[in-house]
């Protein structure tokens, strides 16, 4: 009997992105970077596990073979788009064209597979079960928001806050996010709190639900102590 599916979160893999791999991450080559992320993913994810990928899969997924990279990884993958994903609404009409092109590619690939041809080029809808700008789920009985962007700020990077029109408003719900490339796992203790699920903070590895629950507990305890003051 197969084991029940587990849930994981991750963000900002930046597959094939030379500058991120060698200038902002401690890898000698982009090939080392992509191989390490693949090995870490494969070490924890089973075929029926659910993985929420919270944006910035690559600068150019087709050119950088990011779709192939994700197609080779186990798990059922859901994408919450980021500012480097051409399918995100911030790209306007380009995002609409990208979606139409991806749907056409999915149709062609499905037809090819039906004919017994397993040599086809994957695209967005071939590797991700769903693609959304943001999402909500329930973890340990608590409603949790998911977005590429934090509620506010750019982490510890010396940058002005960007993409404010695409950030969720903090209504007191916990937020899981990427974007900042920070090494901090808990990025905010105020209101609902925020947890950074990007690979930079989690040793290049998808974050299991148990770790999210642990950090939620830390945030709740901090807020309980704060409210007693």
Description:
The structure is a single chain. With 229 residues, this protein is of the alpha/beta class. The protein has one domain (7-228): Purple Acid Phosphatase, chain A, domain 2 (4-Layer Sandwich). It has 6 helices and 10 strands, in the order E-H-H-E-H-E-H-H-E-E-E-E-E-E-E-H. It has helices at residues 18-24, 30-44, 66-72, 93-114, 124-127, 209-228, and strands at 7-10, 50-53, 76-80, 130-132, 134-139, 142-147, 174-177, 186-188, 194-196, 207-208. The strands form 2 sheets. The protein has a 5-stranded mixed sheet with strand order 4-3-2-1-10. Strands 5-6-7-9-8 form a 5-stranded mixed sheet, covered by helices on one side. A hairpin with a 5-residue loop joins strand 8 and strand 9 (194-196). Helix 1 packs across helix 2. The radius of gyration is 18 Å and the shape is globular. The N and C termini lie far apart (51 Å).
């Amino acid at each position: 009997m197969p084991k029940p599916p587990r849930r994981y979160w991750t963000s900002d893999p930046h597959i094939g992105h030379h500058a991120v791999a060698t200038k902002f991450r401690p890898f000698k080559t982009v090939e080392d970077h992509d191989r390490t992320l693949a090995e870490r993913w494969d070490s924890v994810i089973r075929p029926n596990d659910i993985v929420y990928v919270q944006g910035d899969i690559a600068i150019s997924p087709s050119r950088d073979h990011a779709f192939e990279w994700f197609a080779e990884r186990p798990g059922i993958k859901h994408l919450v788009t980021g500012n480097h994903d051409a399918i995100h609404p911030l790209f306007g009409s380009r995002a609409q064209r990208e979606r139409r092109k991806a749907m056409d590619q999915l149709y062609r690939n499905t037809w090819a597979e039906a004919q017994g041809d397993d040599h086809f080029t994957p695209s967005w809808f071939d590797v991700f079960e769903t693609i959304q700008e943001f999402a909500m789920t329930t973890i340990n009985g608590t409603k949790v928001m998911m977005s590429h962007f934090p509620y506010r700020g750019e982490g510890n990077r010396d940058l002005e806050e960007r993409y404010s029109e695409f950030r969720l408003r903090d209504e007191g719900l916990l937020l899981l996010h990427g974007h900042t490339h920070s090494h901090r796992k808990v990025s905010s203790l105020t209101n609902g709190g925020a947890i950074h699920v990007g690979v930079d903070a989690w040793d290049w590895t998808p974050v299991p639900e148990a770790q999210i629950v642990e950090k939620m507990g830390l945030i709740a305890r901090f807020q309980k102590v704060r409210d007693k003051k």
